[in-house]
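Subject: Sanity check before I submit

Could someone independently write out the structure tokens for this chain? I want to compare against mine line by line before I put it in a report. The sequence has 340 residues.
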Amino acid sequence: MIFGRKGRERFLEAVAGFEAAVRERDGERSQRAMQEIQQHYAKAGDGEFVQAGPRLAALLPEVPFGPRGLVAVLVGACVERGADAGACAPYVFDGLGEALGVAAEFCARWVATGGGEIPDPDPDALDEAALERVGEDAAEGWLTLPQWEMASVAMLNHAAVRAELGDRRLRLLEAVRSVQEASDHDFKCLYYALLVLDDEPMVVLHRPTGTGYALRMSGLGDNFQLHTLLADVLVGGGHVPGHAPSAQEAAVCRDAAGQVPTTGSFNLVGPDGEWVWNEGTPADIPVVDGVRLLVLDPPPYQRGWPAGRFFPGMTGDLVLERVLDEAETRGWLEQCVAAK
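---
Independent answer below. Compare away.
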């Protein structure tokens, strides 16, 4: 017990040393203190992470841009161990916004200085010639973007943080799209996390039976997760025919750990007849008269996948609010065309 307590005390002592070094702008001491933080991390207890997270987050604006991404990752790790995501998130998103802007500048400079395939955001992928070509400042934005992605997803796992983002979510999404298009590199976890919908109404029409349902979804990372929960609520609830997922298949899509195999019951289709791919997100479902409108057709072929959560740290749910009456269902179906 004494050894464990000492280890945890050393973690917070290292955090305090890092704070002092950063505020005194002592680069060598900051580096040593960060090494000590990493050294004592494994022995720290949850209470120490709760204290350290907001302190390190508040320090982010004072950390030089290059190592700031590593500190952000540490903040994310603290949040995963219980630190207040709401207190940490504004600092992390400030850093993310700056990193995305610098990464976009990296892509622009790369194109302007000769073009070619943009390298992976990995230090080993950029040699001295490449650094000279774009400049170290722009390269740092590109190379640290995966760190900001990790830290930001840790924040976005929390519904309260997502709710607080407001219009900032759209600005961050636009910045991510810009970097993706400019670089042809995929920052899928960050992009999908920013697309997550909460308390989102959805009308689902089961075309074979001519029945309709009003549902509400929250925290679903992709349409594999949505598809499994639709089958749980509608097939498992006795409303439509198909494969009812087991209790475990449904649980891992809500809040249980792990993944288990499942089989699809539907083909997801938009009211315009376009398929809504399982690989996409619920944000792909078109909005009609203020609600997401989804049509369920019979599956054209059998398809299985590992049921689970795209974001293991994010709780998801899908709730049936009511069964639509025949007239209301017919009105919705009249706005839909056959699948293309």
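---
OP: Matches mine. For the report I'm noting this point. The two ends are 65 Å apart (CA to CA).
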